[in-house]
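#onboarding

Welcome to the new folks! Below is a worked example of what a typical request in this channel looks like: someone posts a single protein sequence, and someone else replies with the predicted structure as tokens. Don't worry about understanding the tokens yet, we'll cover that in week two.

Example request:
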Amino acid sequence: GKQLAASSWPKQRSIAHAMPGGADLMSLYGATGGRTKGGVMPVAEEGFALAVGYALLWASRRDSCNVGFFTAVSEVLRAQGVTRMNWSRTTMVDFVTECVFNSITQKGLSTFLQRAVKGLTREQRDMLMYDFVQSVVYSYLARHESGADYDSAIAFCVNSKIDAVLQCTRLGGCPDWSVSTLLSQDIWDQLGGQAGLKEVSKKFFTHIVAGAQMPCPVQELCDVCGEPRCKSVGKRLELVYVACRCESLTFEQKSAMAARNPKRPRDSNERGMNSLDTAGQGIKETYERKLQVVAVRYPNKTAKEIITKMIGADVARDSLNTSDEITGQQGGRLLASYLHSIKDDASNDFLSSGVNNFLQTQLDKYRMFYPSQKGLLEQALLFLPKLEQLSAAAAAAAAPPPDFGTPDAARPRPGEAGPSAAPPPVEF
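Example response:
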């Protein structure tokens, strides 16, 4: 389409309102009033499709240095009949930076993605892309009036042709993705509707900003209580400090906690029961720390309620701990540690066939359409054998010493009574 002059703002505003859904987009992005440096903003449905398209392309390429990056999405989506026109680079730079990614800089987004994918497998990179795109979808629906209830949100997605965008391989999409995988009725209910979508997207944007800090990423969650320690203010790469639950502790309580959980340098390899740690001290410390997090995070909750939260609403809470962590690793360790701690409780009949079988059943359920849950459960299954090995080592250490027999001189002769021994314990 033709680019309007920047000086003709009254004309731009009238044109924007004349477009179907133009006023909706202006209310959605009230901070800019629909203005850009050189043209009108796309209408609500078209803006939604473009937002998802740019999330896909950015997560796929991981930088925007290519001269055609900011025009590629509108060209591809127009060719597929998803959008009405080709938008200029100037308009799209403003739209993507200010509206889609909450004012996070282009360099910040690229830095986060390049760090986040380091050392990941292809499947793990796909999971990161999925979460990246999901955060944009949730952010858009959280701020738009059509996201007020589930049916309206899905109808808005259908009208915006989001399925066609998600499945566009030219932008990095996947043929198996759809709106129903990103936002099912169960996910909507677990998150608590539009407010929950907003919280999830805000956490992910904070994770992006924290992971883009220079010279190194910032850990945005507290090691002890798991609560956020910072949040994005929606202004470039700025973070503000947030007091977590640990701030309410006295100096003596913090000192005691630090003494119980001394920080140790982390090796580049995962600490486990290897040749340098035959006693499994690293795994034991990790296990105890995770149980402390569970106690602080889920007070007065039943086992089923805790597990439902871990796999449901809190599935991404720990996977976003640091940008160099494997997605789902910390949450998976938390889940495995908690299940291991309650496996011997007879009241938890859902673990009667074992923790491994329980996790495998859940993985089979979530494997196809829920990448975040899939990643968490896979990491839990990877960590569980180390906990079982730790328990086996502890049981072996507690076993009685071997019996080497009684010397011949000390053995009683036939007919003589041997030394008195304590009776065995009573069998209940």
